[in-house]
Amino acid sequence: MDPLLEFHNTAYSRRQFFRKSGTGLGMAALASLLGQRGMSAVENLGAMAPPLPQIAPKAKRAIYISLIGAPSQMDLFDYKPELSKRFKEDLNQWLKDQGERLTGMTSGQSAFPLAPSIFKFQQHGQSGAWISELLPWTAKMTDDLCIIKSMHTDAINHEPANQLVYTGSMQSGKASIGSWLSYGLGSMNEELPSFVVLHANHSSPYANVQAISNRLWGSGYLPGRHAGVALRSLGDPVLFLKDTPGISRETRRSMLTGLNELNRKSFSAIQDPEIEVRMQQYEMAFRMQSSVPELTDLSGESEAIHQLYGDDSRKRGTFANSALMARRLLERGVRFVQIFHRGWDQHGNLPRDLASQCKDVDQGCYGLIQDLKQRGMLEDTLVIWGGEFGRTVYCQGGLSEENYGRDHHPRCFTIWMAGGGIRGGQVYGETDEMSYNIVKDPVHIRDLHATILHALGLKHESLSFKYQGLDQRLTGVEPAKVIHDWFA
Q1: Domains, the chain
Q2: What distances in angstroms separate CA 204 from CA 76, 293, 318, 395, 405, one per listed residue?
Q3: What are phi and psi of 432, to 5 degrees?
Q4: Which of 116, 128, 162, 181 has a CA 20 to 30 Å removed from the CA of 73?
Q5: Are 319 and 312 a contacting pair, CB within 8 Å?
Q6: How far apart are CA 93 and CA 358, in angstroms?
Q7: CA of 443: how far to CAs of 65, 148, 448, 449, 475, in Å?
Q8: Which residue, among 437, 343, 475, has the nearest Cα to 149 in the 3D structure?
Q9: pLDDT tens, residue by residue, 65-97
Q10: Of 288, 325, 46, whose CA–CA distance to 191 is shortest?
Protein backbone atom coordinates (compact mmCIF):
# COMPACT_ATOMS: atom_id res chain seq x y z
CA MET A 1 0.00 0.00 0.00
CA ASP A 2 1.09 3.59 -0.59
CA PRO A 3 2.60 4.76 2.79
CA LEU A 4 1.13 8.25 2.42
CA LEU A 5 -2.34 6.89 1.70
CA GLU A 6 -2.03 4.49 4.65
CA PHE A 7 -1.08 7.39 6.92
CA HIS A 8 -4.08 9.48 5.82
CA ASN A 9 -6.41 6.53 6.37
CA THR A 10 -5.18 5.81 9.91
CA ALA A 11 -4.03 9.13 11.41
CA TYR A 12 -7.32 10.87 12.09
CA SER A 13 -7.71 14.02 14.10
CA ARG A 14 -10.15 13.96 17.01
CA ARG A 15 -12.82 15.66 14.90
CA GLN A 16 -12.27 13.26 12.02
CA PHE A 17 -12.60 10.36 14.46
CA PHE A 18 -15.95 11.59 15.72
CA ARG A 19 -17.13 12.20 12.17
CA LYS A 20 -16.26 8.64 11.17
CA SER A 21 -17.82 7.26 14.34
CA GLY A 22 -20.96 9.22 13.59
CA THR A 23 -21.68 7.22 10.46
CA GLY A 24 -22.69 4.16 12.48
CA LEU A 25 -25.55 3.32 14.83
CA GLY A 26 -25.06 6.50 16.84
CA MET A 27 -25.76 8.67 13.80
CA ALA A 28 -28.81 6.58 12.93
CA ALA A 29 -30.17 7.07 16.44
CA LEU A 30 -29.50 10.80 16.24
CA ALA A 31 -31.31 10.97 12.92
CA SER A 32 -34.43 9.47 14.48
CA LEU A 33 -34.39 12.14 17.17
CA LEU A 34 -33.56 15.19 15.08
CA GLY A 35 -35.54 14.56 11.93
CA GLN A 36 -34.48 15.50 8.41
CA ARG A 37 -33.80 19.20 9.02
CA GLY A 38 -31.72 18.47 12.08
CA MET A 39 -29.72 15.85 10.23
CA SER A 40 -29.01 18.18 7.32
CA ALA A 41 -27.50 20.67 9.74
CA VAL A 42 -25.30 18.00 11.32
CA GLU A 43 -24.12 16.80 7.92
CA ASN A 44 -23.29 20.33 6.84
CA LEU A 45 -21.08 20.83 9.89
CA GLY A 46 -19.31 17.53 9.25
CA ALA A 47 -15.84 17.21 10.70
CA MET A 48 -15.70 20.86 11.72
CA ALA A 49 -18.54 21.07 14.20
CA PRO A 50 -17.67 24.00 16.50
CA PRO A 51 -17.47 23.84 20.29
CA LEU A 52 -20.40 25.10 22.30
CA PRO A 53 -20.11 28.44 24.17
CA GLN A 54 -17.88 27.93 27.18
CA ILE A 55 -19.66 30.44 29.45
CA ALA A 56 -23.15 31.89 29.53
CA PRO A 57 -23.22 34.25 26.52
CA LYS A 58 -24.55 37.78 26.80
CA ALA A 59 -24.76 38.17 23.01
CA LYS A 60 -25.54 35.86 20.10
CA ARG A 61 -24.04 38.00 17.36
CA ALA A 62 -21.97 41.13 16.79
CA ILE A 63 -21.42 44.07 14.46
CA TYR A 64 -18.02 45.75 14.22
CA ILE A 65 -18.10 49.25 12.67
CA SER A 66 -14.48 49.67 11.53
CA LEU A 67 -13.40 53.25 10.83
CA ILE A 68 -10.23 52.78 8.80
CA GLY A 69 -7.71 55.61 9.19
CA ALA A 70 -8.33 56.35 12.89
CA PRO A 71 -10.81 59.04 14.06
CA SER A 72 -9.42 61.85 16.19
CA GLN A 73 -10.42 61.11 19.77
CA MET A 74 -9.87 64.68 20.97
CA ASP A 75 -12.14 66.12 18.28
CA LEU A 76 -14.98 63.68 19.00
CA PHE A 77 -15.06 62.33 22.57
CA ASP A 78 -11.96 63.26 24.61
CA TYR A 79 -12.75 66.87 25.50
CA LYS A 80 -9.77 68.98 26.62
CA PRO A 81 -11.03 72.60 26.98
CA GLU A 82 -7.90 73.89 28.73
CA LEU A 83 -5.82 73.31 25.62
CA SER A 84 -7.43 76.31 23.92
CA LYS A 85 -5.23 78.52 26.15
CA ARG A 86 -2.11 76.86 24.79
CA PHE A 87 -2.78 77.24 21.07
CA LYS A 88 0.38 76.80 18.99
CA GLU A 89 2.61 76.06 21.98
CA ASP A 90 5.65 74.12 20.75
CA LEU A 91 5.71 70.64 22.27
CA ASN A 92 9.11 69.65 20.87
CA GLN A 93 10.93 69.27 24.19
CA TRP A 94 7.86 67.88 25.94
CA LEU A 95 7.57 65.12 23.32
CA LYS A 96 11.24 64.21 23.80
CA ASP A 97 10.61 63.91 27.53
CA GLN A 98 7.68 61.60 26.81
CA GLY A 99 9.79 59.35 24.59
CA GLU A 100 7.36 59.91 21.70
CA ARG A 101 7.45 57.59 18.70
CA LEU A 102 7.23 59.74 15.59
CA THR A 103 6.09 58.57 12.18
CA GLY A 104 8.06 59.41 9.05
CA MET A 105 5.42 62.05 8.28
CA THR A 106 6.27 64.29 11.24
CA SER A 107 9.80 63.21 12.23
CA GLY A 108 11.26 66.01 10.12
CA GLN A 109 9.26 68.81 11.72
CA SER A 110 11.31 71.36 13.63
CA ALA A 111 8.32 72.36 15.75
CA PHE A 112 5.27 70.50 17.05
CA PRO A 113 2.60 73.15 17.65
CA LEU A 114 -0.26 72.20 19.97
CA ALA A 115 -3.58 72.12 18.10
CA PRO A 116 -6.68 72.37 20.32
CA SER A 117 -9.93 71.10 18.84
CA ILE A 118 -11.99 73.84 17.20
CA PHE A 119 -15.25 71.94 17.73
CA LYS A 120 -17.82 72.60 20.42
CA PHE A 121 -18.62 69.92 22.99
CA GLN A 122 -21.62 69.35 25.23
CA GLN A 123 -22.43 66.86 27.96
CA HIS A 124 -25.14 64.32 27.23
CA GLY A 125 -27.07 61.57 28.98
CA GLN A 126 -26.99 60.37 32.54
CA SER A 127 -23.23 59.82 32.33
CA GLY A 128 -22.60 63.43 31.33
CA ALA A 129 -20.37 62.24 28.49
CA TRP A 130 -18.76 65.02 26.46
CA ILE A 131 -19.55 64.58 22.77
CA SER A 132 -18.54 66.78 19.84
CA GLU A 133 -20.96 68.79 17.75
CA LEU A 134 -19.83 66.60 14.82
CA LEU A 135 -21.86 63.68 16.23
CA PRO A 136 -25.36 65.05 17.04
CA TRP A 137 -27.10 61.72 16.41
CA THR A 138 -24.61 59.80 18.52
CA ALA A 139 -25.20 62.33 21.30
CA LYS A 140 -28.91 61.39 21.31
CA MET A 141 -28.11 57.78 22.22
CA THR A 142 -25.43 58.40 24.85
CA ASP A 143 -27.34 56.36 27.41
CA ASP A 144 -27.09 53.32 25.11
CA LEU A 145 -23.30 53.56 24.85
CA CYS A 146 -20.26 52.56 26.84
CA ILE A 147 -17.63 55.09 25.71
CA ILE A 148 -14.10 53.76 26.27
CA LYS A 149 -11.51 56.55 26.25
CA SER A 150 -8.50 54.52 27.35
CA MET A 151 -7.79 52.19 24.43
CA HIS A 152 -4.16 51.78 23.43
CA THR A 153 -2.22 49.74 20.87
CA ASP A 154 1.31 48.68 19.93
CA ALA A 155 1.29 49.85 16.29
CA ILE A 156 1.84 53.35 14.94
CA ASN A 157 1.16 52.76 11.24
CA HIS A 158 -2.09 51.71 9.59
CA GLU A 159 -1.42 48.24 8.17
CA PRO A 160 0.08 46.66 11.32
CA ALA A 161 -2.42 48.54 13.50
CA ASN A 162 -5.40 47.27 11.52
CA GLN A 163 -4.04 43.73 11.54
CA LEU A 164 -3.64 43.95 15.31
CA VAL A 165 -7.19 45.24 15.81
CA TYR A 166 -8.87 42.77 13.49
CA THR A 167 -6.64 39.67 13.72
CA GLY A 168 -4.91 40.05 17.09
CA SER A 169 -1.43 40.26 15.57
CA MET A 170 0.67 42.66 13.52
CA GLN A 171 1.94 39.67 11.53
CA SER A 172 0.13 38.54 8.40
CA GLY A 173 -1.52 35.16 8.11
CA LYS A 174 -3.56 35.24 11.32
CA ALA A 175 -7.30 34.58 11.57
CA SER A 176 -9.64 37.56 11.86
CA ILE A 177 -11.94 38.11 14.83
CA GLY A 178 -15.01 37.31 12.74
CA SER A 179 -13.44 34.02 11.67
CA TRP A 180 -12.69 33.13 15.28
CA LEU A 181 -16.33 33.76 16.21
CA SER A 182 -17.51 31.64 13.28
CA TYR A 183 -15.11 28.86 14.28
CA GLY A 184 -15.97 29.02 17.96
CA LEU A 185 -19.73 29.41 17.69
CA GLY A 186 -20.72 28.06 14.30
CA SER A 187 -23.51 29.33 12.07
CA MET A 188 -27.09 30.19 13.01
CA ASN A 189 -28.37 29.85 9.44
CA GLU A 190 -28.09 27.61 6.39
CA GLU A 191 -28.65 30.23 3.69
CA LEU A 192 -25.90 32.78 4.37
CA PRO A 193 -22.30 32.73 5.65
CA SER A 194 -21.76 33.14 9.38
CA PHE A 195 -19.40 36.11 8.75
CA VAL A 196 -20.25 38.85 6.24
CA VAL A 197 -18.27 42.00 5.36
CA LEU A 198 -19.73 45.24 4.02
CA HIS A 199 -17.72 48.09 2.50
CA ALA A 200 -19.36 51.49 2.91
CA ASN A 201 -18.42 54.36 0.62
CA HIS A 202 -17.24 57.74 1.89
CA SER A 203 -18.76 60.91 0.48
CA SER A 204 -15.83 63.31 0.72
CA PRO A 205 -13.85 63.77 -2.50
CA TYR A 206 -10.86 64.80 -0.38
CA ALA A 207 -10.72 61.85 2.01
CA ASN A 208 -7.36 60.15 2.48
CA VAL A 209 -8.48 56.57 1.80
CA GLN A 210 -6.32 53.85 3.30
CA ALA A 211 -6.01 50.66 1.29
CA ILE A 212 -7.10 47.54 3.15
CA SER A 213 -6.72 43.88 2.25
CA ASN A 214 -8.85 40.81 2.82
CA ARG A 215 -6.38 39.76 5.52
CA LEU A 216 -8.58 41.82 7.85
CA TRP A 217 -11.48 39.42 7.33
CA GLY A 218 -9.61 36.29 6.25
CA SER A 219 -9.59 32.95 8.05
CA GLY A 220 -5.80 32.59 8.14
CA TYR A 221 -4.96 29.11 9.44
CA LEU A 222 -8.60 28.35 10.33
CA PRO A 223 -10.65 26.33 7.80
CA GLY A 224 -11.61 28.46 4.81
CA ARG A 225 -15.35 28.22 5.53
CA HIS A 226 -14.84 30.68 8.41
CA ALA A 227 -13.51 33.53 6.24
CA GLY A 228 -15.64 36.65 5.86
CA VAL A 229 -17.67 36.91 2.66
CA ALA A 230 -17.64 40.45 1.29
CA LEU A 231 -20.82 41.80 -0.30
CA ARG A 232 -20.05 44.39 -2.97
CA SER A 233 -21.66 47.82 -2.88
CA LEU A 234 -21.87 48.13 -6.69
CA GLY A 235 -23.05 45.63 -9.27
CA ASP A 236 -23.80 42.08 -8.18
CA PRO A 237 -23.42 41.76 -4.39
CA VAL A 238 -21.37 38.58 -4.92
CA LEU A 239 -19.42 37.94 -8.12
CA PHE A 240 -20.18 34.81 -10.17
CA LEU A 241 -23.22 33.98 -8.05
CA LYS A 242 -25.66 34.11 -10.93
CA ASP A 243 -26.16 31.06 -13.12
CA THR A 244 -25.02 31.26 -16.73
CA PRO A 245 -27.94 32.10 -19.05
CA GLY A 246 -29.61 28.88 -20.16
CA ILE A 247 -28.62 26.95 -17.01
CA SER A 248 -31.68 26.14 -14.89
CA ARG A 249 -31.67 25.64 -11.13
CA GLU A 250 -32.35 21.94 -11.65
CA THR A 251 -29.36 21.62 -13.95
CA ARG A 252 -27.15 23.52 -11.51
CA ARG A 253 -28.30 21.26 -8.68
CA SER A 254 -27.51 18.17 -10.74
CA MET A 255 -24.05 19.50 -11.62
CA LEU A 256 -23.32 20.29 -7.97
CA THR A 257 -24.50 16.85 -6.83
CA GLY A 258 -22.18 15.19 -9.32
CA LEU A 259 -19.25 17.36 -8.24
CA ASN A 260 -19.90 16.55 -4.59
CA GLU A 261 -19.81 12.83 -5.36
CA LEU A 262 -16.35 13.25 -6.88
CA ASN A 263 -15.20 15.28 -3.89
CA ARG A 264 -16.51 12.65 -1.47
CA LYS A 265 -14.47 9.99 -3.25
CA SER A 266 -11.39 12.21 -2.95
CA PHE A 267 -12.06 12.80 0.72
CA SER A 268 -12.47 9.06 1.38
CA ALA A 269 -9.11 8.47 -0.27
CA ILE A 270 -6.95 11.15 1.41
CA GLN A 271 -9.05 12.55 4.32
CA ASP A 272 -8.09 16.16 3.54
CA PRO A 273 -10.51 18.36 5.55
CA GLU A 274 -10.20 21.16 2.99
CA ILE A 275 -12.14 18.97 0.57
CA GLU A 276 -15.08 19.08 2.96
CA VAL A 277 -14.65 22.85 3.21
CA ARG A 278 -14.84 23.10 -0.56
CA MET A 279 -18.02 21.02 -0.64
CA GLN A 280 -19.62 23.17 2.04
CA GLN A 281 -18.70 26.34 0.16
CA TYR A 282 -20.25 25.02 -3.05
CA GLU A 283 -23.46 24.23 -1.18
CA MET A 284 -23.47 27.66 0.51
CA ALA A 285 -23.00 29.40 -2.85
CA PHE A 286 -25.94 27.44 -4.27
CA ARG A 287 -28.19 28.52 -1.39
CA MET A 288 -26.94 32.12 -1.60
CA GLN A 289 -28.23 32.30 -5.17
CA SER A 290 -31.69 32.51 -3.59
CA SER A 291 -30.95 34.19 -0.26
CA VAL A 292 -28.79 37.13 -1.42
CA PRO A 293 -31.33 38.70 -3.84
CA GLU A 294 -33.96 38.55 -1.10
CA LEU A 295 -31.50 40.04 1.42
CA THR A 296 -30.60 43.02 -0.75
CA ASP A 297 -34.19 43.85 -1.74
CA LEU A 298 -35.17 46.74 0.56
CA SER A 299 -38.60 47.28 -0.97
CA GLY A 300 -40.23 45.77 2.10
CA GLU A 301 -38.63 48.26 4.50
CA SER A 302 -41.01 50.93 5.76
CA GLU A 303 -40.67 54.65 5.24
CA ALA A 304 -40.16 55.03 9.00
CA ILE A 305 -37.11 52.77 8.84
CA HIS A 306 -35.55 54.78 6.02
CA GLN A 307 -36.17 57.98 7.96
CA LEU A 308 -34.56 56.42 11.03
CA TYR A 309 -31.36 55.56 9.16
CA GLY A 310 -31.49 58.64 6.92
CA ASP A 311 -32.19 59.18 3.24
CA ASP A 312 -28.84 57.64 2.31
CA SER A 313 -30.21 54.26 3.41
CA ARG A 314 -31.89 54.01 -0.01
CA LYS A 315 -28.54 54.31 -1.84
CA ARG A 316 -26.45 51.16 -2.16
CA GLY A 317 -22.96 51.51 -0.83
CA THR A 318 -23.59 54.31 1.65
CA PHE A 319 -22.89 53.76 5.31
CA ALA A 320 -26.58 54.14 6.19
CA ASN A 321 -27.47 51.48 3.62
CA SER A 322 -24.75 49.21 5.00
CA ALA A 323 -26.04 49.68 8.55
CA LEU A 324 -29.56 48.74 7.45
CA MET A 325 -28.16 45.76 5.54
CA ALA A 326 -26.28 44.69 8.68
CA ARG A 327 -29.55 44.54 10.62
CA ARG A 328 -31.13 42.45 7.85
CA LEU A 329 -28.16 40.08 7.92
CA LEU A 330 -28.44 39.63 11.67
CA GLU A 331 -32.17 38.93 11.35
CA ARG A 332 -31.32 36.10 8.96
CA GLY A 333 -28.90 34.46 11.38
CA VAL A 334 -25.52 35.87 10.34
CA ARG A 335 -23.21 35.64 13.35
CA PHE A 336 -20.79 38.53 12.69
CA VAL A 337 -21.08 41.56 10.39
CA GLN A 338 -18.19 43.92 9.81
CA ILE A 339 -18.73 47.32 8.17
CA PHE A 340 -15.59 49.00 6.87
CA HIS A 341 -15.71 52.77 6.31
CA ARG A 342 -12.45 54.29 5.09
CA GLY A 343 -11.14 57.85 4.89
CA TRP A 344 -10.53 58.75 8.57
CA ASP A 345 -6.83 59.54 8.13
CA GLN A 346 -6.75 63.33 8.59
CA HIS A 347 -3.10 64.42 8.45
CA GLY A 348 -4.30 67.77 7.08
CA ASN A 349 -7.59 69.63 6.60
CA LEU A 350 -9.03 67.78 9.57
CA PRO A 351 -11.95 70.16 10.25
CA ARG A 352 -13.29 69.75 6.72
CA ASP A 353 -12.68 66.02 6.27
CA LEU A 354 -13.57 64.82 9.76
CA ALA A 355 -16.91 66.65 9.55
CA SER A 356 -17.66 64.88 6.26
CA GLN A 357 -16.74 61.46 7.65
CA CYS A 358 -18.88 61.97 10.76
CA LYS A 359 -21.85 63.01 8.65
CA ASP A 360 -21.49 59.79 6.67
CA VAL A 361 -21.83 57.51 9.71
CA ASP A 362 -23.54 59.45 12.50
CA GLN A 363 -27.22 58.97 11.71
CA GLY A 364 -26.65 55.48 10.34
CA CYS A 365 -25.15 54.38 13.66
CA TYR A 366 -28.04 55.95 15.56
CA GLY A 367 -30.57 54.28 13.28
CA LEU A 368 -28.90 50.89 13.69
CA ILE A 369 -28.88 51.02 17.50
CA GLN A 370 -32.49 52.24 17.72
CA ASP A 371 -33.67 49.75 15.10
CA LEU A 372 -32.06 46.85 16.98
CA LYS A 373 -33.54 48.13 20.22
CA GLN A 374 -37.11 48.41 18.94
CA ARG A 375 -36.90 44.88 17.51
CA GLY A 376 -35.65 43.44 20.80
CA MET A 377 -32.31 42.53 19.20
CA LEU A 378 -29.95 44.98 20.89
CA GLU A 379 -29.88 43.05 24.15
CA ASP A 380 -28.22 40.08 22.44
CA THR A 381 -26.32 41.94 19.71
CA LEU A 382 -22.91 43.44 20.53
CA VAL A 383 -22.02 46.57 18.54
CA ILE A 384 -18.44 47.92 18.45
CA TRP A 385 -17.42 51.28 16.88
CA GLY A 386 -13.84 52.48 16.44
CA GLY A 387 -10.59 52.77 14.54
CA GLU A 388 -7.07 51.38 14.86
CA PHE A 389 -5.38 54.11 16.96
CA GLY A 390 -5.76 57.77 17.92
CA ARG A 391 -4.46 61.13 16.70
CA THR A 392 -1.81 63.47 18.11
CA VAL A 393 -2.40 66.62 20.15
CA TYR A 394 0.22 68.39 18.04
CA CYS A 395 -0.35 69.52 14.48
CA GLN A 396 1.14 67.91 11.42
CA GLY A 397 2.15 70.58 8.93
CA GLY A 398 0.83 74.13 9.07
CA LEU A 399 -1.49 75.29 11.86
CA SER A 400 -4.08 78.06 11.85
CA GLU A 401 -7.05 78.83 14.07
CA GLU A 402 -9.36 77.22 11.47
CA ASN A 403 -7.28 74.39 10.07
CA TYR A 404 -4.93 71.67 11.24
CA GLY A 405 -4.03 68.00 10.82
CA ARG A 406 -3.03 65.29 13.25
CA ASP A 407 -0.57 62.38 13.00
CA HIS A 408 -0.97 58.80 14.29
CA HIS A 409 -1.04 58.24 18.05
CA PRO A 410 -1.05 54.72 19.58
CA ARG A 411 -1.02 55.67 23.27
CA CYS A 412 -4.71 56.49 23.60
CA PHE A 413 -7.88 56.49 21.53
CA THR A 414 -11.64 56.17 21.97
CA ILE A 415 -14.15 53.53 20.90
CA TRP A 416 -17.72 52.83 21.96
CA MET A 417 -19.75 49.67 22.48
CA ALA A 418 -23.46 49.01 22.86
CA GLY A 419 -25.86 46.11 23.37
CA GLY A 420 -24.86 42.51 24.08
CA GLY A 421 -24.98 42.94 27.84
CA ILE A 422 -22.97 46.18 27.80
CA ARG A 423 -24.09 48.72 30.41
CA GLY A 424 -25.03 51.88 28.55
CA GLY A 425 -24.60 55.39 29.87
CA GLN A 426 -21.03 55.01 31.11
CA VAL A 427 -17.64 56.49 30.26
CA TYR A 428 -14.70 54.22 30.97
CA GLY A 429 -11.08 55.33 31.35
CA GLU A 430 -9.37 58.70 31.40
CA THR A 431 -6.49 60.38 29.62
CA ASP A 432 -4.22 63.21 30.75
CA GLU A 433 -4.80 66.89 30.03
CA MET A 434 -3.16 66.48 26.59
CA SER A 435 -5.15 63.44 25.43
CA TYR A 436 -1.73 61.86 25.17
CA ASN A 437 -1.29 59.29 27.97
CA ILE A 438 -3.84 57.14 29.79
CA VAL A 439 -4.14 57.92 33.49
CA LYS A 440 -6.96 55.53 34.47
CA ASP A 441 -8.15 52.07 33.36
CA PRO A 442 -5.99 51.32 30.29
CA VAL A 443 -7.43 48.84 27.78
CA HIS A 444 -5.18 47.07 25.29
CA ILE A 445 -6.45 45.61 22.02
CA ARG A 446 -6.00 42.13 23.56
CA ASP A 447 -8.33 43.12 26.40
CA LEU A 448 -10.93 44.28 23.90
CA HIS A 449 -10.72 40.94 22.07
CA ALA A 450 -10.97 38.96 25.31
CA THR A 451 -14.05 40.98 26.29
CA ILE A 452 -15.76 40.54 22.92
CA LEU A 453 -15.23 36.78 23.09
CA HIS A 454 -16.51 36.75 26.67
CA ALA A 455 -19.68 38.60 25.65
CA LEU A 456 -20.36 35.88 23.07
CA GLY A 457 -19.76 33.02 25.50
CA LEU A 458 -16.14 32.13 24.73
CA LYS A 459 -13.08 32.07 26.98
CA HIS A 460 -10.19 33.63 25.13
CA GLU A 461 -7.70 31.31 26.84
CA SER A 462 -9.56 28.22 25.66
CA LEU A 463 -10.49 29.19 22.11
CA SER A 464 -7.49 27.91 20.14
CA PHE A 465 -6.45 26.15 16.95
CA LYS A 466 -3.38 23.99 16.52
CA TYR A 467 -1.16 25.34 13.74
CA GLN A 468 2.59 24.93 13.15
CA GLY A 469 2.88 23.14 16.48
CA LEU A 470 1.33 25.98 18.47
CA ASP A 471 -2.08 26.57 20.02
CA GLN A 472 -3.01 29.74 18.13
CA ARG A 473 -5.36 32.20 19.86
CA LEU A 474 -6.92 35.52 18.95
CA THR A 475 -5.40 37.08 22.07
CA GLY A 476 -1.99 35.48 21.53
CA VAL A 477 0.35 34.63 24.39
CA GLU A 478 0.57 38.05 26.04
CA PRO A 479 -1.67 38.74 29.08
CA ALA A 480 -5.24 39.74 28.26
CA LYS A 481 -8.14 40.42 30.60
CA VAL A 482 -11.91 40.63 30.31
CA ILE A 483 -13.23 44.08 31.30
CA HIS A 484 -16.19 43.04 33.46
CA ASP A 485 -16.97 46.66 34.40
CA TRP A 486 -18.41 47.23 30.92
CA PHE A 487 -21.26 44.83 31.50
CA ALA A 488 -24.56 45.44 33.23
Answers
A1: 50-486 (3.40.720)
A2: 18, 29, 12, 22, 16
A3: -75, -175
A4: 181
A5: yes
A6: 33
A7: 19, 8, 7, 10, 13
A8: 437
A9: 999 999 999 999 999 999 999 999 999 999 999
A10: 288
Query: Could you tell me if residue 352 is left (phi over 0), alpha (psi between -120 and 50 degrees) or otherwise beta?
Result: alpha
Q: pLDDT tens digits, residue range 120-176?
A: 999 999 999 999 999 999 999 999 999 999 999 999 999 999 999 999 999 999 999
Q: What's the confidence (pLDDT) of residue 486?
A: 98
- Give the predicted TM-score (pTM) of the model: 0.85
Q: Which amino acid is at 101?
A: R
**What separation in angstroms does the CA of 84 have from each of 97, 279, 392, 412, 434?**
22, 61, 15, 20, 11
> Rounded distance, CA 388 to CA 473, Å?
20
Packing angle of the helix pair 319-331, 350-374 (nearest 10 deg) = 30
d(CA 139, CA 282): 45
Rounded mean pLDDT of 110-114?
96
What Rg do the C-alpha atoms of the chain give, in angstroms?
24
